[in-house]
Design goal:
This protein folds into two domains: 213 residues, NAD(P)-binding Rossmann-like Domain (Rossmann fold); 37 residues, no CATH class. 46% of the residues lie in helices and 14% in strands. The chain contains eight helices and seven strands, in the order βαβαβαβαβαβαααβ. The chain has a seven-stranded parallel sheet, sandwiched between helices. Helix 5 links the parallel strand 5 and strand 6. Helix 3 runs parallel beside helix 4, helix 4 packs parallel to helix 5 and helix 6 packs across helix 7. The mean pLDDT is 97.
Length: 261
């Protein structure tokens, strides 16, 4: 069975996509008919099985390519090995929390490499492929922290602000090509990783699940509701659509009103 949909015939490469936001975005891309390339730094049987499951469920071609987004050569090889990259979704990211005067240098370097530099390397290889194909979309998963800041997250905030700035630059460099570049800025998203933190937080604060979510985890998110990976995937699908052909160099916040404060 061949997939039909608005993105049929396109190939989407999603970095950091064997779980969480990246996997949610990849699934929505496949649902819209795109072939997908999943990625993470591991190379396990379950990673490849995940791609096979998506291929079967949505009737698209889905592959998994192991590549370490902290390494420039791996980032570039990912795009080359994909063979095609009509839609590039730079999602890979890590986090570390510490005061700046105590922030480990190795953690700073790793966050900048994975959260920011990887997007530079993948985009640098993907753009010539998009120009040759006559169409392309670069969608960077930034964060509400790409538009505002929080204490103790210096590397993450710096990287996400950098992603927003790079998105604007790429948009200007491709403004007269049929290529767009934008950043999605999520607030708190209900991923398996976040879900796993809720029980421990309930114990720590001696609160109900509802109170922990509203008054601890989502204290800065006015809607008091998590965004979902499906909502982020749907936003990415929209940015890849013809309706978004003149949307470039901007950010779309999916943050329940966080950055409106």
């Amino acid at each position: 069975m061949s997939a039909t949909g608005p993105l049929s015939g396109k190939t989407a490469v999603v970095t950091g996509s064997n779980s969480g936001i990246g996997l949610g975005v990849a699934r929505e891309m496949a649902k819209a008919g795109a072939d997908v390339v999943l990625n993470s730094f591991t190379d396990r049987a379950e990673d490849h099985a995940l791609a096979a499951e998506i291929a079967k469920e949505f009737g698209v071609k889905a592959t998994y390519i192991a590549a370490d987004m902290s390494k420039a050569d791996d980032c570039r090889r990912l795009i080359t090995d994909a063979g095609a990259c009509d839609i590039l979704i730079n999602n890979a990211g890590i986090q570390h929390v510490a005061p700046i005067d105590e922030f480990p240098t190795a953690k700073w370097d790793a966050i900048i490499a994975i959260n920011l530099s990887s997007a530079f390397h993948t985009t640098a290889v993907a753009l010539p492929m998009m120009r040759a194909a006559g169409w392309g979309r670069v969608i960077n998963i930034a964060s509400a922290h790409g538009l505002t800041a929080s204490p103790y997250k210096s590397a993450y905030v710096a990287a996400k602000h950098g992603i927003v700035g790079m998105s604007k630059t790429v948009a200007l460099e491709t403004a007269q090509d049929p290529i767009t570049c934008n950043a999605i800025c999520p607030g708190y998203v209900l991923t398996p990783l976040v879900e796993a933190q809720i029980p421990d937080t309930m114990k720590e604060y001696d609160m109900s699940r509802e109170d922990v979510i509203k008054n601890v985890m989502l204290t800065r998110q006015p809607s008091k509701e998590f965004a979902t990976v499906e909502q982020l995937g749907g936003t990415a699908v929209f940015l890849a659509s013809d309706a978004a052909a003149q949307i470039t160099g901007t950010t779309i916040s999916v943050d329940g009103g966080w950055t409106a404060l």
